[in-house]
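Recall from the previous lesson that a structure prediction takes nothing but the amino acid sequence as input. Here we apply that procedure to Diguanylate cyclase (GGDEF) domain-containing protein from Selenomonas ruminantium. The sequence below is the only information supplied.
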Amino acid sequence: MHSIRTKFTLLTVVSIIIAMSIATLIGVFSIKELGRSDADQMLHLKCTTGAMNLESYFDSAEHSTETVATLIQDNFENMPYDQLDSQVEHTRQLFNKIAARLPGVLTYYFRIDPQFSPTVKGFWYVKTAENDFHEYPTTDLIPYNDNISAAPKWFSVPKMIGKSIWLPPYYTENLGMRVISYNVPVYWRGQFVGVVGIELDYETLAREVEKIRLFDNGYAFLLDADSNIVYHPQMDTLLQYGEKVAMDTPDRIVGSNHVQYHFNGISKEAVWLPLRNSMQLYVTVPLSEINSGWQTMVRRILFASLVILLIVSLIMMRFGERITKPLCDLTESAKQVADGKYEFVLNYNGNDEIGLLTRTFKQLVTHTKEHISKLNRQVYIDAMTSVHNKASYEAYIQKLQEQIEDPAKKLEFAVGVFDCDNLKHINDVYGHDKGDVYIKTASQLICHTFKHSPVFRIGGDEFAVIIRNEDFQNRDELFRLFRQKREELCAAATSAWEQAHVTMGLAVYDAQIDAHVIDVARRADQCMYENKRLRKEKQRLTKELRKTEADG
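The prediction returns the following tokens.
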């Protein structure tokens, strides 16, 4: 059976665990949702910010090229055909001023369609190591006149679609590097004249996209309008194509332009935004990093909850101990009372139910002790002599017998039996009241001699003493002292009933011959009767001797 303290502690701890579990679950759910929301907002914000930066970068290139193209187009409206060369020169000066201020520009050009003018080719400027622009010879476009699809994309695509366009990265042999270009077609009176364009350093664009990073392993990549890769951290591997395919078949659609997917064995989350130039910017982050923030907070909350639970449990255990200790003390005292032990200490005196119960229990035990004391006097105490009576003697022998039967205990004790001589003569001659005085005097003599041993009145004129411990070790001296006090008492008495002619017998317990305590008592009784016979014989011989001396 569990103690009240254990039950109280368990109930309290279980209640705390349930309450804290509910609160922790609510907190974990709230933190998870808040963490997810913050991560999503951060992801969207990063994508939006990156898109704005790229838009600004592309806008500057578009605006410069469109400005040049617009001015050319305006000048071409009323231009005579034979002034084409001078108009190209004017465009060269204008473009040089504008392009020089654009970040990341590698080349700028105005190329004339050979079908429009076989003599005027336009111009092509390339940035040098000194950050100046130097004009390079223009390549010959004549071989492509009959097969426009074989012409360079920066020329053929704007001519075919008839509008401005960003071209995806391509490798230009003239520069020996990868570039992206923005190209605008120019017309004269509805006829295609040529292309105004700029080529941007792909590495500059890559650096712009590389700046868009989130957490430790998040990154961004860029696609054109046809979902061709413009930039990807794994641009030179096949992984660049796999990621777009993975996002097209997501594990979960979180929202508009927001998905979760698996790529290269990693769970990821991505958002994307379209740019004005029809490109698409993607920002992707591993789910583990997105979740790490709220998961760390959850772990901290769980750890804090466990610490709080431990602290509260220890406090409640301590508090429960303070509450239940008086009950434990009360329980232990009740066990002692049940075993017949009434000497205990209960110090708790609080003004609560336990304090009231403790005081009531102490009062009950006090009254019980008094009642038992009265009953003991009635049951086990001889009313005349105030020593133990025969019933007490039999109970004591029974307990002593149980100790004899316990092989683990080695007992040493002796039984003394005492008998009052001449009691019948006192009663007959002086009356029973004087006989009672005689018995009391004999009892006092025995008790004063054997102070540390229980004395029993086992008959009208017969007493017994169970001699143990210190009295047992000094038994010979005690019996000598008893005889001495008996003689002194008889000699000092002025009346026959004040004397105490008591015969004694002693037997020491011997485990070899005594199977029962009663065997020891029987031998002591035999010894007492033998001593009585010898005393009477001595008294008879003494009387005869005195008579003989008187007659002589």
